[in-house]
Structure formats: C-alpha cells, structure tokens
Amino acid sequence: MAQAAVHVAPKNILVFGDSLSAGYGLELTESWPYLLQQELNHSNFKVLNASISGETTLGGRQRFARLLEQYHPAIVIVELGANDGLRGFSAADIEDNLNVILEQINQARAKTLLVGMKLPPNYGEPYITQFQNVFPRLAAKHRISLLPFLLEGVGADQFQADNMHPAASAQPRIMTNVLQALKPLLR
Which residues belong to the active site? Predict the structure, then answer.
C-alpha cells in the first residue's frame, strides 16, 4: 500500500540587515546567513537573506512591508542600525525606524530576533550609550529576543582590510552567535 508523501512547506527565516549580514566582500557561501542555512538544513526552516550593504534603518523601514508580504516569514532577524550609528544619526530616529519594523513583524505574527551593535570608541561615550541602549529598550518593549552584539567574540584579526567588515574566518562565529539567540524561536 503506497502512502502519500506529506510535504510540509518550509518556515521562512528572513534575515533583514546591512552589509554585516549581506556578506560584504565575501563569497555567498562564506556569509553567516548561508552558514545558518547549512546548520538548519535538516529542519523545516529556510533562510532568506534580504540584507543590503549600506542599508539604514530608514531604508529598511521603507522596504520592509513589501518583504513581509513577499516572504511571509515565521521568524525575522533584524540586523540594522550600524550604518545609522556610523553616520551619527539620531538615536531617537534609529529607535523610531526600528520600532516601526518591529510593529510590522508583530502584526504579521512572526517571531523576532533583534540584533544589537556597538560603535567604535571615537564616537564619544554619550552617543555610544544612546545608540547601544536602543536595542535592549526595543527588545523589552516588544518582548522579543535580543542578541546584544552580533560580532561578540570576533577577533581584531578577523576583519577585512577596511577593519569594519568581518572576514570569512569570522563568519562561523557570527553564525553561532545568531544561532544561540535564535534557538528558542525555532521551537
């Protein structure tokens, strides 16, 4: 007796970020989102990377609704804000833009992993603190998961020549950071 094969549609994990998630300067197969898909290959999750190098929170806010409609993600990994911070944009504007994105995810009934960033010390303590506080404040407000710092544990020697973008050697560590924060959402 032949049994009908049951096909279960994969649950989409949408990676929505900037060059740190787009794999700037890397081969596609070296980027942490690609490595995450490899790690999840025997699960019912499909990683879709909609990250764009140079993306800001405002740019992300402007294009996010279309991506939600297109991909219907079960989980969204939001990794935005680094470019805003490096350009000295207002922490209040960064928070407002991220807040709109997080509200849209909530309305779509998807789970969220918000990824925080840190700025170099030359931006001055007041601004650095304002910037870094945006991420935990939004995570608490929306009751979502937070990865405090994407690049935790990445060594100074694991960056490309620009000293801003992680090299291929750093990508497995970044993927592990994301996966550890993501695990509770995969249940």
Answer: 19, 162, 165
